[in-house]
Specification:
single chain, 428 residues, alpha/beta, nine-stranded mixed beta sheet, six-stranded parallel beta sheet, 16% strand
């Protein structure tokens, strides 16, 4: 039988947290700010211990240590603990982990549909957060998370590790500072969208021992368990497809290179039909982005920027240009061999160590990290807008200040979703 949230204890916990926030006590008494000395370890809890989370925990810099694990699939967390010879307590309910006063920060590497709520609760509990990408399932929950981070004065780093790669930083700075002259056009990968739920609902089967299916579903509509749902990245109920998965990286580079970290495009239109259709976008300064390159035939972690002085292709930890002299001169500004070594999969698969180090440094200094929550929210919003444009099937006008479509009630309905009882977003 599917378990239900422990509503009373959850409400008691949230009331206590809310009271502390109102009194201004959480961020100073529970967080790391007052406690940490220069050489003291930052104590980290993990919420979600799946494939990506396991890699992050194995790459955690020495200046931090794991204190506790949490996963609604308890067996998965126990397996990681055993593999690492750990002695950490394991929880199924992340609220129990957040109650611990010996935790300074948390890594939230759940699925994107499960991510925002524990991030907000972590902020309210005085914990700094490393949140994997894509940050959100829909646009308005992203703004709610930004508001929570700002109100509680937490440090939240989004797992867009290309923001910590010198090769990407140099290339984006070059474009942003006018190195290519006026940008005429940006060509981006046409990342695929999510699939609708199958026409025939998968048959109900017994919930595996140790899996809290109710907690796993999080905000999504309740349904009987079937392991097919756990391939969550393909389904619209749980994800935005590759447009928000790989697109969270590629679009983030577009935002960075164009200097649009605090805004977004203003015009959108479909170039072809269907859930994987090509999409056109235009920013207020006239720069156009065309999502037209087929996946696998271009830079999955970036885009191609075409300017008056040439063309620069940015990808993960690499770039190329036409004329070639542009890239050759940029590479003189960085130790290319060292950067390739640092970020190589031979050193660590899907390396993020130095990105996490920036997060840990900012926990100590209280500065905003290189992939701050606003940056992550704005980048994945552009991905959401691409999927919405496909779904609407017509031109749309976006207001990046109000984060709404102009005079378009039906399009604005895509910006939020009904959340299941027990998993509503708290009032910020």
């Amino acid at each position: 039988m599917v378990s239900r949230p422990q509503a009373a204890s959850r409400r008691q916990f949230l009331r206590a947290v809310a009271s502390s926030v109102a009194l201004g006590t959480v961020t100073r008494s529970v967080g790391a700010l007052d406690r940490l000395g220069v050489n003291e370890e930052i104590r980290v809890g993990a919420i979600g211990v799946g494939g990506r989370a396991s890699l992050l925990l194995q790459q955690l810099p020495e200046s931090a240590k794991i204190v506790a694990l949490c996963d609604c699939n308890r067996a998965r967390a126990e397996k990681f603990k055993e593999k690492q010879n750990g002695a950490w307590p394991v929880y199924q309910d992340y609220q129990r982990l957040l109650e611990r006063k010996d935790i300074d920060a948390v890594i939230v590497a759940t699925g994107e549909f499960q991510r925002v709520l524990p991030c907000i609760h972590a902020c309210q509990a005085g914990k700094d957060v490393y949140a994997e990408k894509p940050l959100t399932l829909y646009v308005s929950e992203g703004r709610a998370l930004v508001n929570a981070v700002r109100k509680t004065e937490r440090v939240l780093q989004v797992g867009s590790q290309q923001r910590s790669m010198a090769m990407n930083r140099i290339a984006c700075e070059f474009i942003r500072s006018g190195g290519l002259g006026k940008i005429l056009k940006v060509q981006a990968i046409n990342y695929g969208g999510p699939e609708a739920s199958p026409a025939k609902t998968p048959d109900a089967v017994d919930v595996p021992e140790g899996l809290d299916w109710n907690m796993w579903l999080n905000q999504a509509e309740s349904r009987p368990f079937n392991p097919e749902w756990m391939s969550w990245m393909r389904w619209r109920d749980f994800a935005g497809g590759e447009m928000t998965n790989w697109g969270a990286h590629g679009v983030d580079q577009i935002q960075w290179a164009l200097g649009m970290d605090d805004t977004g495009p203003v015009e959108l239109k479909p170039l072809s039909e269907g859930p994987n259709g090509q999409v056109f976008m235009k920013y207020a300064n006239g720069i156009e982005v065309h999502f037209v390159i087929e996946p696998g035939r271009g830079p999955m972690g970036g885009a191609i920027f075409i300017g008056e002085k040439g063309k620069l292709e940015i990808n993960r930890n690499k770039f190329a240009s036409n004329p070639p002299e542009i890239a050759e001169n940029l590479k003189k500004m960085v130790d290319v061999d060292e950067e390739e070594r640092k970020w190589s999969d031979n050193l660590a698969l899907w390396q993020a160590r130095w990105h996490m180090q920036d997060w840990l440094d900012c926990i100590r200094t209280r500065k905003r990290p290189v992939a701050d929550v606003e940056i992550g929210h704005r980048s994945v919003t552009v991905c959401h807008l691409a999927n919405i444009t496909r779904a609407a099937g017509r031109p749309l006008r976006w207001d990046p200040v109000k984060e709404q479509f102009a005079d378009d009630k039906s399009a604005n309905e895509y910006l939020t979703r009904a959340r299941r009882k027990g998993f509503e977003l708290p009032t910020i």
